[in-house]
Each structure stands twice: as structure tokens, then as C-alpha cells.
Amino acid sequence: MKELRTKAEVQSSYPVMAELCGHLSEKEYVQRVADMQGDGYRLFGLYEREELVSLAGVAIRMDLFNGRHLWVYELVTAGKHRSKGYGHVLVQQLEEFASENGCSKVVLYSGMSRIDAHRFWEEQGMYEKRGYVFKKELV
């Protein structure tokens, strides 16, 4: 697992992240990551022979319900590399990173329609569906 810190590294990860966040242009993606990095966002990639195969955006957060935890904003494996165990490896490394940084939990949001993603998280062991997220667009 390697942290992507520079603009060039982030930009090079766009094709993989676009599989999850295709609504963003490359320019928007790079700018959002830069903005989020100022608030503790970190982008980690898993590589196989120098090819990015899986990517995760995370941040260490604190709240009243979860205490200090690792919030997973995004986790995606490149389509041609799915079902090869890369996502599982990345999750294990993120869990180690969380523990090393004093986190007691890993927490994430997954959209209601993402049945395959739900199955993935449940198969990781000890991840369970715990609630709903409510959203209202402000115009």
C-alpha cells in the first residue's frame, strides 16, 4: 500500500477512481482530492507490478458515536482486477493503518443500490450494516 500525495500521483489514479466516481472529470477529481487533503483525507493505492489495481480514500475522524475511527470515503478495485483479492488486501492494510493510528473502528458509507459492494464488505468479516444515511440536495 502506497500513499498518493503529489498532484501527479493523484492524477495518475483517476482512471481507477473514475470507475467509482465517473461523474467527476479528471480536473475536478484532482482538485477535490487536493481540497480534501487539507482536511485530513489520504489516498492509498495498491499496486501489482507498478500498476494501480485498487484505491482507497480515507481519513481519521472522531465523533461521539464511533470515537476515533478510520472513515473510508472510497474503495475501488479496477474492473479488470476485481475478484482477485486486491480489495481484501487493501482493506487489511487499511485496518492495520487504522490500528497503528489509534483508531478503534473502520467506518464507511455504501449506497443502497451497491449490492456487490455490500457483499464485499460483509465478506471481509466483522463489517455489518448499521444504519441509513439521509441526504438532501441544497440548491
UniProtKB/TrEMBL annotation:
Span of domain N-acetyltransferase: 1-139
Coiled coil (residue ranges): none
Any one GO MF annotation of this record: acyltransferase activity, transferring groups other than amino-acyl groups
Designated name of the protein: GNAT family N-acetyltransferase
Organism of this sequence: Ectobacillus ponti
